[in-house]
Amino acid sequence: METKIFTTDEIAMAATAINAGQLVAFPTETVYGLGADATNEEAVKQVYLAKGRPSDNPLIVHVADEATVEKYAEPLSDKAKQLIQIFWPGPLTLIFKLQPNALSKSVTGGLDTAAFRNPKNEATLELIRQAGVPLVGPSANTSGKPSPTLAKHVYHDLQGKIAGILDDGPTQYGVESTVLDMSTDTPTILRPGAVTEEQLTAVIGPVISSHHHVGKNEVPKAPGMKYKHYAPSAQVYIVDSPTDWPVIQETLRQNQVHAGILATNDVLTMNDFPENVEPFSLGEGINGASHALFAGLRHFDLESDVKVILAQAFPDDHLGAAYMNRLDKSAGGVHFNAQHPETLSEER
Ligand code: TXA
Ligand code: MG
């Protein structure tokens, strides 16, 4: 199958493909999603196949309005309505109890709940309206790889497997939406994202953050959180302190390991890395870093042959919670140890 690139002037063609049961990747303000008609079970099954995604990992249903949620979900609470009022369209996914048999098992993974999201991207909202159906949309990457923040990332992973990609340039945030479970007594953050815990608490009071440290034998509530994620083939090391950089610089100068560095502009200009080091700029601050993290991991994975990647840590709050959650997964929890810099090597 030839994968077509649709421009934002070709939304009608993309909608026709969706209505024919085909897969079309779509832009959002977070990452690109892999779209299919959420009411077409055969089409939804193709999404799992194209991504290589385990079938027990449910999908987010992307809607253009609140009314579509009310069609499938049990009556919304006042808190849910407030969140929708304030944060939609935007990077907040809400999980609600469903009416009996409202959506197929392939969408929900057999749960009695479903995740809904109203993305803040005009082209995609128009695609949903023209198709006249909600769209399932997992991130449009091969399962386990960093989420795509550019149409070319989607093309790389899924070319030949999907009908098209609606290209609307780079995404705004670069990390996926916050997933908030509204089906429990106290709302629970299952995945941190661009809408922060602090912002949620300000609107609806206390929330539980269950995403912190899911142990190996625990069953995470968001099925997707148990899988290895965002992992390039080089080992990623988290760099916790700015004082680690001079140590890293010296270690790499001595051991000559081919290394990629993911850091903000201030770090890159303040240090003098040797020639075996490839820098990739995370731009300025946590906003820049969230935007560029996945693109940086993909760059080192596909366009260079670095053996290790050193990536800058940020404080674990506000947007930093989302960034550190993704970085921690891509590193498998491995941190650079300035006391034992010799452990920074290719053989891990
Ligand atoms: O920003 C985003 O959310 C992107 C864009 C494309 O919208 N989508 C995305 O989808 O990241 P995906 O499938 O990669 O991640 C959805 C997460 C998974 O961890 C999944 O397990 C969880 O949401 N999830 C979906 N439905 C659920 C449910 N009913 N209960 C608990 N977790 C659920
Ligand atoms: Mg994903």
From TrEMBL:
YrdC-like domain location: 8-195
UniProt GO cellular component terms: cytoplasm
Alphabetized InterPro entries for the sequence: DHBP_synth_RibB-like_a/b_dom, Sua5-like_dom, Sua5/YwlC_C, Sua5_C, T(6)A37_SUA5, TC-AMP_synthase_SUA5
SUPFAM superfamilies xref list: YrdC/RibB
One GO term (biological process): regulation of translational fidelity
Chain residues that bind L-threonine: T30, H62, R117, S177
Catalyzed reaction equations: L-threonine + hydrogencarbonate + ATP = L-threonylcarbamoyladenylate + diphosphate + H2O
A molecular function GO annotation: double-stranded RNA binding
Chain positions recorded as ATP binding sites: R53, N57, T113, S139, S147, R191, Y230
EC number: 2.7.7.87
Keywords: ATP-binding, Cytoplasm, Nucleotide-binding, Nucleotidyltransferase, Transferase, tRNA processing
Enzyme class label: transferase
Compartments reported by the entry: Cytoplasm
NCBIfam families: L-threonylcarbamoyladenylate synthase (TIGR00057)
Protein purpose: Required for the formation of a threonylcarbamoyl group on adenosine at position 37 (t(6)A37) in tRNAs that read codons beginning with adenine.
Family to which this protein belongs: Belongs to the SUA5 family.
The name this protein goes by in its record: Threonylcarbamoyl-AMP synthase
